[in-house]
Amino acid sequence: MTSLPNTTLRRLMSLPQIPSVWEGDRRSLDNSDVLDLEEKTGQFILWVDGAEGMVRSMDVVTQETGPEAIVRALVKAMEHPQPPARPARPQKIIVRDREIQFFLRGVLQDLEIAVDYVVDLPIIDELFERLAEIRPPRHPKLPSEYSDLLIEKAYEIWADAPWELVADHQVVSVELNQWDLGTLYCTVMGMLELDYGIVLYRSLDSLRRFRLAAINQNSRTDIEEAFLGQDCLFITFSAESEDDDVDLEDLPLSEITPQFGSIHPFEGLRPTLYEEEAIALAVTLEALHQFFHDSQRKLHNNFPRLKKNYNITPPPDPKHPEITPQPVPIKVLTLPEVADELMEMEADEDKGEDFDFNIPLREGLIPRGSFISLGIIPWDNLKLLKVHIKHYQPEPTLQENGEGLPMLMIQTTRPKAKEVVEKIVAAGGLEGILFNVGEDPFHETTFDLGILQLKNKELYIFQEFPADSPVHIKAKKNWNQRCQKTKNICSLIIATGLTGAAKGNPSFKDMYALFEVRHIDPEELGMGKLQLMMQMDW
Q: In the chain, where are the structural domains located?
């Protein structure tokens, strides 16, 4: 058994020993129900002076914490007690747990403190009883009369999977004009494959402020302040047995749990809803459910301006069952102009490149941090992919020859993938892929530039490869040999899943777009060695 260090023993023995009995206990928070915690997996450790009737120390630990914690709390009670108590050593301590008694006897044997066992601890018991009496009753997370309805509506939204249709910057407004709410502005979480849910901002200004604050945050404190500064209702989805490497969408419905709540700058995060909020949220979720169902095809590849009108009947009021609720007219609209505004906020944050090339090469088409690789897709897999892919640009002259089609894979997050494809489509499509040597005269380095040419002749850099990289040299050699076999036909695949388990190895379900294009010889465009030029932005 570990004993106290000699220096600690001498220090404690120098304290005055008072003629009092201290009560000590380690009590589960599950039994006490004193703290309003989301997960009561902790325990109190209390040391109370029975003669003075005061708490000398109180700690909260996890259930897994070893018995040493009760000794630490006791040493604190002796040396650094809570005011107004003064440092002292008791003559005797009593506990109601035999194991704790035997443990303390061994540890405290040199401190001349008696350790006894008792069935009850009257001071500590009374303390917890008083705390329970003064503790206000806990408000249920959902009003009981609307709980089942809200959960049902939440599962309907989960089945709709709006994150497959709408990115987090694309806003859908829901005009209620009921229950002290005017218009709610809906943003969908889930395309990033991290958190799934719907946030309903009570004002457009609140949404704008949050997005701007989130972009400009510089620290964890900034993030928390931006989060708690929102003015919204929300519904999120989680799983009790959630694995960080598992996407929630891969789990059975029985493991998915919806949570509801509200955030307000003056209230902070509140994981409960009151009656009017529950009614408003139930009606809003029903309107969104119908909207996503009706607009699925139109929302699949873009975010057009849409407007739908619904008459939603709110749930009956259990306090007045004799009153039949009347349908409420609800207007649901997409707000493409707001989506563009939010995207511009992020684009402004990404600006500030220091260099430009001496020909009109652009950056910004391919998101930073994307996973990029050169490879090949076998012909059989290509046929299967064409059936399941969300966006496909075919090349009529393609003929099967060799192992498969040379492939440039760019993997990013789902919203970014959607944006890349939208930009390419807006330019008329993808013309081809090429590589060209570039040099940086300022640092005397050379590199191989990977470039995409769009149908409108714009050129975008997708990657700078070190010219002397053995991995790239081999990949480029294989790429050129495969392109020769396919008569210079190759492909670009835009994939999702960058933040999940599929990072670096996307499956068919992660592949978002396939472009069959030409492998372009840079001499066709009159390119020689490209030189990096300084670009001043005053």
A: 6-134, 144-344, 353-534
